[in-house]
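Quick one: structure for this chain?
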Amino acid sequence: LAASSVLAANARAYIIDPHQHQPESLASLLQPLVQSSHVSIINPFHTPKLLKELHATLKRRMKGEEPVNSGILLVIDELAGLASMDYFNLLLAFLEQCAEKTDKTNMAFIGSSEKWTARHFHGREDIRNYMRSMLIHKTKSSQTELLLEDAQDKLLVKQLHHPGEALLMTDY
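Got it. Here's what it folds into:
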């Protein structure tokens, strides 16, 4: 998804990946695009600085002070792992604004995590509210309960059995 956004829509992507030095990491997979200057791999410890920059961009775009023709994509791998960082509430506040203003600011967020229960997000059950769409793979029923409200959608997730199968759920 991140590569498609960069290649097809000429978006600027910021990738936060705690496992960026591992060969199978998201950062490693996107490394060829880093040379294009459209992708930046961000150390998780540098996230507060990036959030300040992105928040300033969001404000400028909302005020019409900056063109919105070029998209900005924030991709966070292992989102639950960042919940223990001091800046996590700042991150959630930015994600909330980003989700509400995507159509006006051309800024979007992709987050991935193996765990989605509130326990993994320091009790924050509202994490689901910051995501307008979810690509859900086979998962535990406790994860499904947190992510989805509709009983029919929960049933569909239980029917996922094979690698690569996923459901795209949107708030549309």
